[in-house]
Amino acid sequence: MLKRIQALFQSPAEETPEKTFDDVKVAAAALLVCAATMDEVYGKTEQAKIRTVLKSFFELSTEETEELIALAESEEQRAVGLHRWTQTLKDAYEVEERTRLIEQLWEVVYADGELHDYEASLLRRVAGLIYVPDREAGEARKRVLARLGVET
After folding, report:
1. pTM to 2 decimals?
2. CATH of the domain at 65
3. Which among 46, 57, 50 is positioned nearest to 92, based on CA atoms?
């Protein structure tokens, strides 16, 4: 009880500063984590792919990437749906950037070498929610499969 009262009187300057990311970065990272965990296996290969994608896409340092992933993992655990993230991304990006995000989501779900039905379903839903036309979403998937040397 005493600690709670003391906390009320502590100034914000005494708190540890926390890195904040804009909503777009958090939304994209949370979707990547959501895609990676959709099959209930969040392995090292998927985590590494998310690091690579975020670092490249947003031009982040290694430290910033790790902080963003930690925040995204927390957000993904508390999320009740995709709407907040997809709305943020749809409003922030043009169709080319949204298509690029879909391609990166495909990279994450294929990182473990297999596509789970839940992962495929998620990507179809996300593509629709961020208004990426079916044709572009399909082409994004084909590009990823070609890079990975996977035949359908």
Report:
1. 0.83
2. 1.10.3680.10
3. 57
